[in-house]
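Why should sequence recovery work at all? Because a backbone constrains its sequence more than one might expect. Tight turns favour small or flexible residues, buried strands favour hydrophobic ones, and helices have their own preferences. The token representation captures these environments compactly. In the example below, the structure is given first.
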């Protein structure tokens, strides 16, 4: 956060050495991103939100005490939070106008209280706390700049004696991630205004390199970049310098002057301050005039270069001309153009793109009351450019190029992790821009559409309406027609028409846009042309038909991340939610008046747009905050299927978030989802099943599905296998519902197990993953295992063990392991070579697959007829299992320990794994706090004690003392396994002494009275061995 505020925020100078934030679009974006971070902090990081700052963030606020309600002690001039820190200090204290805040939780609540003034409050807070990281975490963090990696933070914390060091570490990393997010986000935003085209610069440098070297005839001794790393846009300047239009820095050594350090930017080429002597960092400040290119600059600076260049001029110019063929002009900041200049620019662009095939005419609608779209865009861009142009030299600061690599890696990592939503898929990829080739054979529709667009541009109001109606007569679902409208400039005109006062023209334009916006390329073009903000504004129109068309078009366009973000940023989510309230004046249950035809259509279109937008996590939050959930719940009670599909689709997308799942239970939505499973509409059935799949992670939801009769329709839908999307949703819902045993019993009654077995072949992977997952849960019950075996389900399950899909492998290993519990099924698995296939999955790179395979091997080894011989028959198998004890994954370690427990039941196998070093590896794991791992580790140690001098070896490797601590666990299973392990270890006198020294006797005495017989016997046996050693020692002493 400190780096972003220092490098990106635009500050004004002040007389006392401090500054205030200028009112600029850049600063507003920065503040909004910080507000979003603070708003979400309390939900995303609830533990960190409770952390008390080292020093409070303090600023002057405009909030009145009356704005604070529950959770605060309010008087006329002061507000004190009821929440206090460990010293009893309030985490929020307001003494008008000064406010002090000491936690992120209080900051989040304050942002909520501030409502419309939160931007102003954020600005005041940032201005008053120029280094907020120091106040939050302490002065040790004053060095958290762009070179502070996670490893540096970790070292800082681990070397500290502060008891809150771990919490500080987590917060420090979160703040670091915010910093990187701000840097990358602002860079992407500014790249929309600044066009960096480093290609000509690169070609000039390469050309100069070819004319450089040793010898008097060369133009230069050397020319090299200061950085070897090239960013994805072709620039070599660090991201925060690219903001100022800088592309790269070059070290040039002429024959007759010292080495020059040169900056190549969109302004041109100029000399910078060069590299510093101590750290080798570049001083980015300009030290002279700006030249149009490198050659002009070097001719001015070096007489020798100028002389040698004149000799090489003809050859150099020929090479330069070759490089410039077919190249677009560069070094240009995107500036808005109006009048005749704009007309010339558009003509040049169309000539370049289409090889003078067609000519784009400028709209001249005499009856229009609003300005042209492109003219309308200019003020914001001009003001942005003025800020950059006017402040460029003042805001430049020296940044080390050596730090760029660290920041680049961190930014890449943040961008990788920051996916908007798990539900977003390949549809989010923006397609490449395809245009019709100039020499392609174009259909007659292309030229007819071109004529209609001319009428749109040059006609009066009547001609425009007629042209729109004529255009709708074409097959707008055909890609040729869609791209024809775009290529001849019709898309810009259609968007411009949305800004007129003529309702008929708006309706005609939106109807066309609605049809053609199914094309992914058109979707991107609409966003690029600024069409979405205009459509969002139309949602406020008093005309319902306009609202419907605008919402439907938004639904089509918002298929990728950037479009969804634009809708949210322009207030579209709130306006779309308001469309759902189609019965403000109706009172439940007056359904007849509630769903009038036009109102239903408005609500349906609003739900359709929200469905598209809800694939983004931020939009889901925006829908919730705008009060969309209760409205969606109310609309779910309608009988209109056209309405239900987008409503259920939106709920299905939102159900991936825990907040929504809790609300779904509270609003009794499951009942309506189950009811709609009985619909005849396949798409509605699919989305209802998918919503149940998302929600059924929760036990209470699974019970509700059963209580409302949802299991029977799910089971019956398994018989319809033609619609694979619906089948995937239904099998997914059955899988999640099968986690509850009561539901499994019902599925057995409905013959769903047999149907699931039949779906193990000839199905796509997304169906197979769910089918196998459901069978894995159902086979936990003995009766279902018998059904699977009798239906021939073992062989297709074993066949799936050779796949590569990670989720499928995890589920199929669990299902095979569940079947292996039954000896008859185990015989079939062994005959089909299933155990070998499971063993081979221990080599899989995914930890989840390894762990699931190891768990599945346990019942296989337990129920195989000659398990010891079978295990030894796998070449290198035992060594592979032992080596897995070096894993860092707790689930893998637990499952491998459980497998070793079963392997070690055979003495020969125990001898082999002992030779492979199982004892030291098990001993190394003893210092763990994970109860699941403790239990299986103790069982493995207990089994391994039964060979040779392993008992002694465990003592030598310091495994005994940590085992004693396991007895303090709250898990009875851990107690039983540990007591058995200690009993085996107590056969060695040295281990008895270690146990006695670590107070094992007292803990074991308490367990002798346990109702668990195995625990009683093991504890008593261990105490007996310790006591016997003590008596023998005492007897020896007196004799």
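From this structural description, the recovered sequence reads:
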């Amino acid at each position: 956060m400190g780096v972003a505020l220092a490098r990106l925020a635009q500050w004004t100078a002040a007389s006392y050495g401090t500054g205030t934030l200028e009112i600029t679009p850049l600063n507003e974006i920065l503040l909004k991103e910080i507000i979003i971070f603070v708003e979400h902090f309390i939900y995303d990081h609830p533990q960190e939100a409770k952390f008390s700052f080292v020093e409070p963030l303090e600023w002057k606020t405009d909030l009145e005490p009356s704005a604070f309600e529950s959770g605060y002690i309010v008087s006329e001039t002061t507000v004190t939070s009821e929440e206090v820190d460990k010293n009893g200090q309030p985490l929020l204290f307001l003494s008008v106008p000064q406010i002090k805040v000491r936690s992120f939780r209080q900051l989040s609540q304050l942002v909520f209280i501030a409502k419309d003034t939160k931007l102003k409050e954020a600005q005041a807070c940032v201005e008053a706390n120029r280094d907020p990281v120091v106040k939050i975490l302490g002065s040790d963090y004053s060095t958290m700049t762009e070179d502070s990696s996670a490893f540096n933070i970790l070292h800082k914390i681990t070397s500290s004696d502060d008891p809150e060091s771990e919490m500080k570490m987590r917060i420090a990393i979160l703040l670091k991630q915010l910093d990187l997010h701000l840097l990358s986000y602002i860079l992407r935003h500014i790249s929309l205004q600044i066009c960096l085209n480093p290609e000509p610069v690169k070609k000039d440098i390469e050309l100069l390199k070819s004319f450089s070297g040793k010898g008097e005839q060369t133009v230069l001794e050397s020319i090299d970049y200061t950085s070897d790393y090239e960013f994805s846009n072709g620039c070599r300047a660090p991201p925060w310098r690219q903001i100022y239009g800088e592309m790269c820095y070059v070290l040039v050594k002429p024959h007759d002057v010292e080495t020059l350090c040169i900056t190549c930017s969109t302004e041109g080429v100029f000399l910078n301050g060069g590299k510093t002597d101590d750290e080798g960092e570049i001083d980015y400040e300009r030290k002279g005039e700006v030249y149009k290119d490198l050659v002009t600059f070097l001719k001015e600076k070096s007489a020798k270069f100028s002389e040698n260049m004149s000799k090489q001029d003809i050859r150099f110019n020929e090479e330069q001309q070759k490089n410039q063929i077919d190249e677009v002009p560069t070094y240009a900041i995107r500036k808005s153009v109006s009048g005749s200049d704009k007309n010339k620019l558009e003509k040049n662009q169309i000539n370049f793109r289409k090889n003078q095939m067609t000519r784009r005419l400028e709209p001249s609608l005499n009856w229009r009351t609003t300005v042209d779209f492109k003219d309308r865009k200019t003020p914001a861009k001009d003001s942005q450019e003025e800020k950059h142009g006017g402040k460029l030299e003042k805001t430049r600061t020296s940044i080390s190029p050596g730090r760029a690599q660290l920041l680049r890696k961190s930014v890449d990592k943040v961008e990788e992790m920051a996916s908007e939503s798990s539900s977003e898929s390949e549809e989010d990829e923006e397609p490449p821009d395809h245009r019709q080739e100039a020499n392609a054979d174009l259909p007659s529709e292309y030229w007819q559409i071109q004529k209609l667009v001319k009428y749109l541009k040059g006609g009066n109001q009547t001609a425009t309406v007629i042209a729109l109606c004529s255009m709708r007569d074409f097959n707008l679902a055909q890609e040729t027609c869609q791209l024809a409208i775009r290529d001849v400039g019709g898309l810009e005109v259609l968007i411009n028409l949305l800004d007129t006062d003529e309702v008929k023209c708006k309706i005609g334009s939106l109807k066309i846009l609605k049809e053609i916006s199914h094309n992914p390329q058109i979707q991107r073009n609409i966003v690029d042309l600024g069409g979405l903000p205009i459509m969002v504004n139309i949602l406020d129109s008093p005309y319902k038909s306009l609202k419907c068309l605008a919402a439907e078009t938004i639904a089509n366009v918002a298929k990728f991340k950037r479009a969804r973000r634009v809708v949210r940023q322009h207030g579209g989510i709130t306006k779309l939610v308001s469309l759902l309230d189609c019965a403000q004046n109706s009172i439940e249950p007056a359904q007849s008046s509630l769903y009038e035809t036009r109102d239903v259509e408005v609500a349906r279109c609003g739900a359709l747009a929200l469905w598209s937008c809800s694939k983004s996590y931020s939009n889901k939050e925006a829908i919730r905050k705008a009060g969309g959930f209760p409205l969606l719940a109310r609309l779910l009670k309608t009988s209109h299927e056209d309405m239900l599909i987008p409503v259920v689709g939106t709920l299905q997308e939102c159900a991936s978030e825990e907040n929504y799942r809790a609300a779904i239970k509270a609003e009794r939505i499951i009942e309506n989802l189950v009811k709609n499973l009985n619909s005849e509409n396949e798409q509605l059935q699919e989305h209802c099943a998918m919503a149940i799949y998302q929600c059924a992670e929760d036990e209470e939801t699974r019970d509700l599905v059963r209580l409302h009769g949802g299991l029977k329709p799910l089971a019956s839908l398994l018989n319809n296998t033609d619609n694979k999307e619906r089948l995937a949703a239904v099998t997914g819902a059955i899988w999640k519902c099968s986690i509850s045993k009561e539901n499994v019993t019902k599925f057995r009654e409905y013959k769903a197990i047999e149907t699931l077995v039949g779906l193990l072949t000839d199905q796509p992977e997304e169906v197979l993953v769910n089918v196998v997952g459901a069978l894995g849960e159902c086979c936990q019950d003995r009766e279902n295992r018998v059904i699977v075996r009798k239906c021939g389900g073992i062989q297709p399950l074993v066949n799936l063990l050779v796949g590569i899909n990670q989720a499928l492998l995890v589920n199929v290993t669990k299902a095979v392991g569940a079947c292996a519990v039954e000896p008859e099924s185990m015989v079939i698995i062994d005959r089909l070579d299933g155990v070998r296939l499971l063993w081979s999955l221990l080599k899989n790179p995914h930890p989840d697959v390894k762990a699931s395979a190891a768990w599945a091997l346990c019942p296989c080894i337990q129920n195989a007829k000659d398990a010891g011989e079978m295990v030894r028959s796998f070449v290198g198998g035992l060594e592979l299992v032992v080596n897995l004890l070096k894993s860092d994954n707790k689930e893998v370690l637990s499952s491998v320990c459980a497998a070793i427990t079963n392997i070690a039941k055979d003495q020969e196998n125990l001898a082999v794994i002992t030779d492979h070093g199982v004892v030291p590896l098990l001993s190394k794991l003893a210092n763990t706090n994970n109860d699941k791992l403790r239990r299986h580790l103790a069982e493995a140690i207990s089994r391994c004690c039964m060979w040779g001098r392993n008992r002694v070896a465990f003592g030598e490797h310091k495994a005994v003392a940590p085992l004693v601590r396991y007895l303090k666990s709250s898990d009875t299973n851990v107690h039983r396994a540990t007591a058995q392990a200690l009993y085996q270890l107590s056969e060695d006198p040295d281990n008895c002494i270690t146990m006695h020294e670590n107070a094992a006797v007292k803990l074991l005495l308490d367990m002798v009275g346990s109702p668990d017989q195995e625990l009683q016997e093991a504890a008593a046996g261990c105490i007996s061995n310790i006591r016997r050693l003590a008596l023998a020692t005492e007897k020896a002493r007196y004799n």
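A few observations help interpret the result. Confidence is low (pLDDT under 50) at residues 143-151, 324-423, 583-595.
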